Amino acid sequence: MAAASQMPEYSSSQAREWAEEHHRFLKESNPAFLANLVQSNSLSSHLHSVGEQAEEMHAGAMAMHNRKVQNLPHHQRVKELEILHQSMNEVVRHNLIYSPIPDENHQD
Q1: Which of the four, 8, 22, 61, 97, has the lowest number of CB atoms within 10 Å?
Q2: Structural domains of the chain, count
């Protein structure tokens, strides 16, 4: 896809993956909004913004929690961080990646 080659550089591969996941979500759930982004040449910046926000949210929570569990025994710390990683993936997906985008044709 042409838009993918124009995407700005991401701070991490995870930020790029979040953006790609959001792009797939838009294709499936709101193709009209996606078409609008493409037509206005703002798809790349939208995806970049979502990807970077998602990565910042995820990494910030992981870093904060890592400080809280740093004194635990190694196996317990690893287990706590794995649980947090999975939980934060769900939070990021719910709040950013799969968040409803307004449908222009839908009026409340």
Answers
A1: 8
A2: 1
